[in-house]
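As a representative case, we now present a protein record of this kind.
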Amino acid sequence: MSGICAVFRKQDASRTAEVVRAMCRGLSLDPSESRAMAAEECGAVGVSAVYPTQQIFQDDRFLVAYEADFVNETELWEAAGVEPGAGIGSLLARLYERFGTGFPARINGEFSIVIWEKRKRTLFAATDGFGIHPLVYHENERSILVASRIDALLASGEVSAEIHPHALANYVNYTVNLAAQTIISKVHRLLPGTFLAAGGGRLRTERYWDMTYTTGRGDEEALSRGLEAVVQQAVKDHAERERFSELGAFLSGGTDSSTVVGMMSRLQRGPVKTFSIGFEERRFNELDYARIAARKFQADYHEYLVSAKDCVEALPYMVRYFDEPFGNSSAIPTYFCARLAAENGVRAMLAGDGGDELFGGNERYLTDSVFEAYQKVPRIVRKGVVEPVLRAIPARNGVFGLARSYVRRSNLPQPERFFSYNLLAENPASTIFDPDFVAALGDYSVLEIPSRYYWEGPAHEHLDRLLYVDVKITLGDNDLLKVTRMSELAGVRPKFPLLDRRVAEFSGTIPSRLKVKGSQKRYLFKKAFRELLPIDIIQKKKHGFGIPVAYWMKSDPQMRELTRDVLLSARTYQRGHIRKQFIEDLLLKHEDDKTAFYGDLLWIFLTLELWFREFVDEPRWAAAA
């Protein structure tokens, strides 16, 4: 665990250094990490570093802590009006001095930053446009605390570890919590592309950058050529900042990772080191496609088969490395892929994350397009013919059952329709949660945050609104956290060239009709890279970088025992959150079901309870405090 932190003491300034020191220890209890801090009367910053991109800086005006990897560093030095070479911390101080709180809008890169201005006694913090390096914060009458991890805030001794009911319910529904809430009631996450400014008794947050979407028609050929050029430049800029001998790439065999590897191969610095994960259970593998891409690009290819034993042994460490409950099981292959890279001398890896959410690659965009098509059928036909006929047919399963389900979902308003497959859309909260916990939820709405994104986002077309929701939730709250945390646990620093500011902004200029066209997902993206990618990868159906946890819960003795020991123990239900009857029903249904549906749900509750045991019951931050 690593990151940055800062404290602004509004009262009792004598404890400033003491508090930031505890926060630094809370960031990591690994003595091999490099910890440093700088403090003055009311403000302090600190860092616990595993990467050279994590540093502190101080001069006569500023204290700065940062985790930063800038693509446009040369432009930033020119904008700051000083000669390069003084270090990133000095650059940040000069940018803040010259442009004020708006300076992060000039940065193309991945970063989290905290700056204490000594004379004015103001605190500034910011995270990059996609929240690749997130920050959390807390304010009370004595202090404002900011850090990369919740552990650091709790280690300060000034934050209670009280669980936020709404955040726990969001986790159960989405497998992750949704910003700006965190699992800790009085801790908030700084939204992507947002800064925090505090001084004079006032704290405010403000967005400095966001995705935007145009509705223009656009020339298909010109857009295709432009997309290829901007992605190639982004991959080049991200790759060339690293030592080639220590650089690798995730390779799942999907469109995005294959594109990144293909573009890396054009740099002609030697064979690209690629890393792929499969499973002994062949039906979960995409290794055939990864091998196709590796052959095409003459990569230095490595693969590893993850077993149930691997999963059981690594699970406690992975669960603990997230400072909030995290139920996305693809964290397992992500960790083992990064570990494989680290074992082969790699220190930085390029990843393809972001392509689905920017260019229309998720399967549910196609599903939603079917729902949209049905809504365009004249109402008199839908309500007067189709739906009465379907209601009259007694069959509940098969084709007619599926048709009824599609019609019901199609008639739901957005974004309820988009999330209608989620757990709390299908099950009342009272069937899942303890009665006292349901009461504590109060006026909670599972759709509050997605609805805000859908209706208030900077998009006009329906598909672009869905993409914006996924940029914030699927990407920002889920996938980026998964890749960054699991890579760090393995000892590797991930980089995301498809989230380069230039690529993201270009994607917003592509008309939605060219992102999903008919039955073709990411239509323009595939057209742009049709000469680069193997035809098998362009035409493949999306499988997903998943893991057979549901199967292992039945077939593997260790995983089966772990699941039942945890989910049937009295300790789990003494927390007063989940109804035991609900979990027992899931276990019974999982035994009889041939699909992964119930097992995947069980995984959500298994990792939740393991998180409580690792983070709450035996908190490392308590030792730091």
Notes: The chain has a mean pLDDT of 93.
